[in-house]
Amino acid sequence: KLDQYDVIDKHTQSGLDLVERYIKFVKERTEIEQNYAKQLRSLTKKYYRRGSKEEQECRYSNHASFQDILNELNDYAGQRELIAENMMTGICVELTKFLQDLKQERKSHLSDAKKAQQTLESSFKHLESTKKRFAKEWAEAEKATQQADKTESDPNATKPDVEKARQHAHARTHTAEECRNDYAAELQKYNKEQNLFYYIEIPQFFNKLQEMDERRIRRLAGGYCQFSDIEKKVLPIISKCLEGISAAGGKVDEKQDSMLLIEQHKSGFEQPGDVEFEDYSHGIKPNRHCATDRTSSYLQNKSSLYKSVKSKWKKRRDAFVLKQGCLTFSLKPVPGRFCIPLAMHHVAVKTLPTRWILVFTNTRIHLPPPAEDFSHLPPEQRKKKLQAKIDDIAKELQKTQDQSDALEKMRGVYEQNPQLGDPSSLEPQISETSQNIGRLRGELTKYETWLSEAMGGEDVLSEQLESQHLYSEFDDEFDDVQTPIGQCKAIYTFEGNSEGTISITEGEQLSVMEDDKGDGWMRVLKANGEEGYIPSSYVKLVS
Q1: Average pLDDT estimate for 222-242
Q2: Which part of the chain is the F-BAR domain (predicted)?
């Protein structure tokens, strides 16, 4: 009905506005979900432990469970992100596209209805114009007829005047009849168009708008359901995350954590024996070693560190400066080797057949880093550290070996198919991997030897007190006869100007006496018997 056109226009526009409001509502909901997920991820990242120390702590069930909770919470945050993503793509994007189509369809229907109405109004205006013309012409015809009758009844009128009046009246009447026929035709046409407009076109337009609006309502109702269904789909995974958090709490075993701590840190030391009674009533003089009893415990705990200091220094004679109440001890470092000065307060010096034993109390010692063979650790801890180091080296060796095999295969392919590449271009990589393999094998043998010694019962802490102190007398460097551990070839010339180093020339064959310890230097023996340190990067190992 045309009188309800404006109502339908407003109603359909209101429906489109509702769809648009719902889209904005869902977008804001997705932003809340995304911010919530982002905050959860930041929270888990903040409390998540990384690094070697944290990995050690995560061996305990209560620490590991907390990490599991953080992992589950991170997965939970991922599900919240998934909800936001699905809402955005499944509701906002789809409804926005649907809304654009509805707006275009509504505009088309309203435009067609408007055109039909304008066509009917134009036809009605033409009908009114025809009607007015007919009325005017009919009035003129009646006037002409009355004038002809009047002229005919006038006795003074001549016959030509009467004939002329009759002809004029007849013409007017004929014109009026034509206008009457035109008006009747226009009226019939308008009535037909009006019936078409009200009974066919307008109902069709309104039915299309009704179908469009109902389709909008159905799609909007589907969007309402999606709002819930999207979250329902992830609820099983969210439930698993929450169950995982509960399971993490159930995995905590306080007894196991306690036993793990004990196993991890047990030292392997024997329990100390009883302290013997020293009877001074019979005139027994105190043992001169008693002066050192106060430092015995400290030095025993640090004995492995002292042995590490001793192993880090190459045996050489140097100067001692003895002052009143103070003994200053200094060494000249070997180039590229670890070196530290030691300054200690002197307490007593005891002369033994072949060495000086220095005993100190209230001493400030700048201790070196832990020994490479972990001899500074208790026996059990040393075994564990050595085994872990061997495992790491073995993994790296296997990785390097695989890399070397791959390079060899690639070189074979290049040799058979030169168009694929130049075999000589792989030589630097093959040489580098070969050197790495040799170095890793040497390190593996070294650590396996140390582990064998540790497993054989050799305990560095079982030595006597004299062997726990630092010695003030050093032998000349490289006095012991050693067997070369490998061969190498000099690839650059090196001038050994510093003490402890030797000069080499490019292409010279050398025997490796001591491998690189990670400081960039190695000890080699020349063919003329000269021995010393050179940079590891100046030579190439020869298999």
Answers
A1: 94
A2: 1-257
